[in-house]
Amino acid sequence: MSEQPPEFSDEALEAGRKLCLSPVEFILGAADLHQLPAMDRPEIAFAGRSNVGKSSLINALLNRKNLARSSAEPGKTRELNYFNLGPDRLWVVDLPGFGYAKVSKTQAAKWTRLTKRYLQGRANLQRVFLLVDSRRGLMDTDLETMAMLDTAAVIYQVVLTKSDKIKASELAKVKAKVESALKTHGAAHPVVRVTSSEKGFGIAELRAEIGRLANT
Predict the structure, then answer these.
(1) What is the pLDDT of residues 51-87, one digit of tens each?
(2) Residues 178, 160 contacting (CB under 8 angstroms)
(3) pTM of the prediction?
(4) 26 with 94: CB under 8 angstroms?
(5) In a designed cystine with 47, which of 33, 95, 149, 189 is the match (CB 3.0 to 4.6 A)?
(6) Contacts of 26 (CB under 8 A, 6+ apart)
């Protein structure tokens, strides 16, 4: 049996590394769509439940300690946080976390409405990376977000986080279950990424994926 070719070439891995380690600057936290920057370059966004490790993954990808701030308080990201990567090559957006355990229903609804309007209005949005905790797999709130992304016709890709916190055999089961679920979602990218911000697993491949999107 012949060996499978590598998913990314050495050149693609290096291009992704260079992009993600290039200068990055926080631009603004948008609480309303009229504040969003111009759609003058490709854009990617990160979404996920509160406490899924979104800030940690963004920091690991961009090799920064506190670029995206993590907090023990659920729902700490309350705006569309924009970062200029490259510079001027890619917008990176940190979306408000969902599943807000400690905020009012009114506030949660406001953030959900903002996110939904954002998804429907950014023609330059190349992909949403939907972060899912490896230990929990897809939860109801994840499925609700996937349905919203399907409706908005925005391509999204599931990224399993905290893969170092779960046994390899269990991780394989979770990944297979997610891959199966994605087959019924029209806007879902079929490849599930497995990452660990703490151990660095999957970071190089996700950087390569981002590098490819920056050239779209």
Answers:
(1) 899 999 999 999 998 887 654 444 455 789 999 999 9
(2) yes
(3) 0.92
(4) no
(5) 95
(6) 67, 81, 82, 83
User: Which tokens go with 90?
Assistant: 């890619």
Instruction: Say how far apart CA 178 and CA 173 lie, in whole Å.
Output: 9
Q: Does residue 211 surpass a pLDDT of 90?
A: yes
How many domains does one find in the chain?
1
Two structure tokens written together for 181: 């679920």
Cα three-residue angle 199-21-27, rounded to 5 degrees: 110
pLDDT at 102 over 90: no
Residue 4 falls inside a structural domain: no
| 190 falls within a domain | yes
DSSP 97: P
Side-chain half-sphere CA neighbours of 24 within 13 A: 24
CA–CA separation, 174 and 110 (whole Å): 31
Residue 35 lies in a domain: yes
Cross-strand bridge partners of residue 24: 85
Q: Does any domain span residue 2?
A: no
**pLDDT tens for residues 159-169?**
999 999 999 99
Collapsing DSSP states into helix, strand and coil, what is residue 185? coil
User: CA 116, CA 145: separation in Å to the nearest integer?
Assistant: 9
Residue 50 has what pLDDT?
A: 83
How far apart, in whole angstroms, are the C-alpha atoms of residue 93 and residue 114?
13
Any idea what the CATH number is for the domain that residue 202 is in?
3.40.50.300
- Under 8 Å between Cβ of 132 and 159: yes
| Token pair for 118 | 């954002």
Provide the residue range defining the domain that includes 210.
10-214
